[in-house]
Amino acid sequence: MTETLGTADRPLHVAIVGAGPAGFYAAEALIKQKELVCRIDFINRLPTPYGLVREGVAPDHQSIKAVTRVYDKLAAAANIRYFGNVTFGKDLLHADLKRHYDAIIYAVGAQSDRKMGIPGEDMAGSLPATVFVGWYNGHPDYRDLEFDLSHERVLVVGNGNVAMDVTRILVSDPDELAKSDIADHALAGLRASKVREVVLLGRRGPVQAAFTTPELKEFGELAGVDVIVDPADLELDPQSATAMADDKIATRNVELLRNYAERGASGAPRRIVMRFLVSPVEVLGSDDKLGAVKIERNRLVQSDDGSMRPRGSGEFETLECGMILRSVGYRGVPLPNVPFNEASGTIPNVAGRVTTQRGGEVVPGEYVVGWAKRGPSGVIGTNKPDAAATVQSLLADLSELAGAEAPDPDAIPALLRTRQVPYVSYGDWKILDTHETSCGGEQGRPRVKVTRVAEMLEIIESGRS
Question: What is each CA distance from 194 to 198, 273, 305, 455, in whole angstroms?
């Protein structure tokens, strides 16, 4: 006889693939259900949790990282387990999770980047901003990358907060960065950097820019850095002026930009040049090594949906540079045996319920949250209501998820041991966390990140004994 799912006699067993903000908020939404008894297992590829809070938030934005205290409290719950250093599709298969859990929630984010689609984009020195962010944040996947910072000018393509972050890090005083949790190898690279100018390229106008006012304001607070804005770029077309009148953020941004334009250059040793209504059209170089970028001046035209779109004017110029970092959007990557929409870079879904890509039928027991669900939009807090909405869909499906036999909680640890996977518990992560923060405390820093998985596992093993 089938028991009622989500009760003390038959708890709901949920696997959450990914341990970033979206995953933690999904767990929070589940355990806050007073009438629901559930057991939650996080499956995370890296030993370290927190996703982009650890690996994406800029090191000079420590206040944003304080949200991990909330995640720590969640992870301490008796009904939540953490399996770090476990790769979905390799160490644990889709079939394993279907067999041992009532429901699966994918919280894998958007790990890849979108391309500009221009000639020469794959030339050496032309890179996605995502890998630069991973490098300076100590992500193990990017630990050993090398960036040529021997040139005076770098171009950053994009007008979102990630573009603002990489621009700021490139021109920040390394002594100031040394007070943060920036990866040691990145700090050494930035100390030796010859970069003196970062040109930020936005394909639309200042009213349409995606950056937030605090990020823009920070530019003007950087010691030894001039912010250069051409007043002509701030001359608004009628449609943009009308849109700005109803947009407080855009209004404040344009005010700040006009202040920068009036301030002009002071002769500071480093500078940020903000350009609007320009698009890269070709990466130029010799011997497959970048030397310049050809850009085209744009004008804005109103599309059928009322939004303002850039259109090339046929007016070109060439900017010499040593590196170009593109930040034109994140996109997800396919998971083994999980539906994937190549066009949007997301897991297809309806209200968080995973659906097949072709027919659009709901896949029973599978759900998605965060960027993998809606695409790369919003801030960390946006994931909270998003996850709660998906959990409501899951709760509405309880009667359809119930099986005749409860999964064995010991099955997953046993399976990982059989496959000789050195998985990491949350207690193990706290050993590593204590090590990092202790090393940081000795240097007057929040933490000193360990950036190689093998070293993480060695520290954990030593701490266990």
Answer: 11, 17, 44, 31
What one-character-per-residue DSSP string does 19-56 give? -SHHHHHHHHHHHT-TT--EEEEEE-SSSS-STHHHHT
Compute the radius of gyration of the chain from its Cα atoms.
Answer: 24
Residues 131 and 189 in one domain: yes
Per the domain annotation, does 442 fall within a domain? no
Residues 164 and 61 in one domain: no
The answer to whether 137 and 59 have CB atoms below 8 angstroms apart is yes
Q: How far apart are CA 169 and CA 239, in angstroms?
A: 34
Please check whether residues 173 and 64 belong to one and the same domain: no
- Work out how many domains the chain is built from and give that number: 2
Question: In this structure, what CATH number is given to the domain that contains residue 344?
Answer: 3.40.50.720
- Beta-carbon contacts of 278 under 8 Å, excluding residues fewer than 6 positions away, are 201, 202, 203, 295, 296, 297, 298
Q: Are residues 140 and 80 in the same domain?
A: no
Domain membership flag for residue 99: yes
Residue 445 lies in a domain: no
Q: Is residue 75 part of a domain?
A: yes
Give CA 146 to chain center in angstroms: 21
10 Å CB burial of residue 387 (0-12, 13-18, 19+) is: buried
Closest listed residue to residue 29, CA positions, set 385, 402, 380:
385
**CB contact set of 234 (below 8 Å; sequence gap of 6+):** 206, 254, 257, 258, 261, 276
Torsion angle of alpha carbons 22, 25, 30, 34, nearest 10°? -170
What is the mean pLDDT, run by run of 10 residues, along the chain of 465 residues? 78 96 97 94 98 93 92 93 98 96 94 88 93 96 94 95 96 97 97 97 93 95 96 92 91 96 95 97 89 94 82 94 91 92 93 92 96 88 94 94 79 97 97 97 96 98 93
β-pair type (330-331, 112-113): antiparallel
Residues 14 and 105: beta-carbon distance below 8 Å: yes
102, 13 in Cβ contact below 8 A?
A: yes
71 contacts: CB under 8 Å, gap ≥ 6: 21, 24, 49, 50, 53
Amino acid letter, residue 167: T
Q: Are 370 and 106 in contact (CB under 8 A)?
A: no
- Reduced to 3 states (helix: H, G, I; strand: E, B; else coil), residue 332 is coil
Structural domain range at position 69:
12-111+331-424
CATH number at residue 237: 3.50.50.60
Residues 6+ apart with CB under 8 A from 171: 195, 198, 222, 225, 270, 271, 272
